[in-house]
């Protein structure tokens, strides 16, 4: 269809299908199945997408009393050490995190049970079963069969949302991606291996901490400088640890030799032996440090801004480029 449009033909329904007249870069790649490259994403597809953005929205709209009833039920829940108590409900939560999605999933079936249509409750239960099966760190044929059954169970009860007019259709990419979870896990192993929840943790180190260190004005430049400083400090700490560990291995035998040498002699002679041993050990550590590969660059070179051609020809260095 895309090739036909690129050739100048006009096809009905091309734009409505969400297609663009662009030749895909992977069309001629050998052994390439671009659809298999779209692996499951537990955080954005399940927790944030299907559960928070759709399932919670549909179920809340079917509850008698809407959001107020859901908040009242969350407020009335007793405290438990393993559960998050949403004291202010879910309407006032402006920024949801992955942990809050998971905590909400633990109690949402209980919140909507008895207040929403039974088919909605069954759909929510099937959706949460699918989420927990997809989170398994190891799968068998039985667990994959249970995952497929959970999807089938959700598919058989989701149409109540259309019947109650809380949604128009289910043409949702994140919802469609769930049909490929069993095949993707069979091909690429468990879904936690390509979950984006791990890289999301870097937002805290590279974005939030850097923004807090700025004055919140022209923060992009300040965050960049802060990250460079943090990287320099981290590299220097690694160098210090490496140097200290190298000296420790040499200094570990110093006091023992000094004590052995001082036995049977007076205190002054023992102190002299101990100082000699320490001096030898420090000199050995420095010699080992000097053996490390080092580079020295002149601040004011005698021949600045020279071309590669001049270096290879005028200074007779034909292998200069190969040795870089």
Could you explain how this protein is built, in words?
The protein is an all-alpha fold. Helices cover 59% and strands 0% of the residues. It has helices at residues 2-6, 42-62, 66-76, 98-112, 118-134, 141-157, 160-163, 173-177, 181-188, 197-200, 202-213, 219-251, 254-262, 267-290, 308-314. Helix 4 packs antiparallel against helix 5 (118-134), helix 11 (202-213) crosses helix 12 (219-251) and helix 12 (219-251) crosses helix 14 (267-290). The radius of gyration is 33 Å and the shape is extended.
Radius of gyration: 33 Å
What proportion strand? Answer: under 5%
- Which term fits the overall shape? extended
Distance between the termini: 50 Å
Based on helices, strands and strand pairing, what is the structural class? mainly alpha
Q: Spans of 5+ residues with little confidence (pLDDT < 50)?
A: 253-265
Number of helices: 15
* Total E-strand runs: 0
Instruction: Quote the average pLDDT.
Output: 79
Biggest sheet overview: none
Query: What is the helical fraction, as a range of percent?
Result: 55-70%
N-to-C SSE string, H for helix and E for strand: HHHHHHHHHHHHHHH
């Amino acid at each position: 269809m895309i090739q036909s449009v690129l050739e100048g033909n006009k096809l009905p329904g091309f734009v409505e299908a969400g297609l663009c007249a662009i030749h895909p870069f992977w069309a001629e790649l050998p052994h390439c199945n671009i659809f298999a490259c779209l692996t499951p994403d537990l955080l954005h597809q399940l927790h944030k997408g299907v559960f928070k953005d759709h399932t919670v929205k549909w179920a809340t709209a079917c509850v008698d009393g809407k959001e107020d009833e859901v908040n009242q039920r969350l407020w009335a829940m007793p405290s438990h050490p393993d559960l998050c108590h949403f004291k202010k409900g879910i309407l006032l939560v402006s920024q949801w995190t992955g942990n809050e999605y998971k905590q909400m999933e633990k109690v949402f079936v209980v919140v909507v049970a008895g207040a929403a249509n039974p088919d909605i409750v069954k759909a929510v239960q099937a959706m949460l079963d699918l989420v927990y099966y997809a989170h398994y760190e190891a799968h068998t044929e039985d667990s994959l069969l249970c995952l497929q059954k959970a999807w089938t169970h959700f598919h058989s009860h989701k149409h109540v949302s259309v019947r109650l007019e809380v949604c128009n259709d289910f043409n949702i990419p994140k919802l469609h991606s769930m049909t490929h979870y069993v095949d993707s896990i069979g091909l690429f192993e468990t879904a936690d291996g390509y979950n984006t929840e791990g890289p999301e943790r870097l937002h805290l180190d590279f974005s939030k901490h850097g923004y807090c260190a700025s004055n919140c004005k022209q923060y992009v430049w300040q965050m960049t400088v802060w990250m460079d400083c943090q990287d320099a400090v981290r590299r220097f700490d690694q160098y210090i640890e490496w140097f200290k560990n190298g000296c420790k291995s040499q200094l570990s035998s110093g006091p023992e030799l000094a004590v052995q040498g001082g036995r049977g002699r007076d205190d002054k002679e023992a102190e002299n032996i101990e100082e000699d041993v320490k001096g030898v050990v420090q000199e050995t550590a420095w010699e080992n440090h000097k053996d490390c590969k080092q580079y020295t660059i002149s601040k004011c070179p005698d021949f600045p801004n020279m071309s590669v051609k001049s270096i290879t020809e005028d200074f007779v260095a034909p292998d200069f480029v190969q040795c870089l």
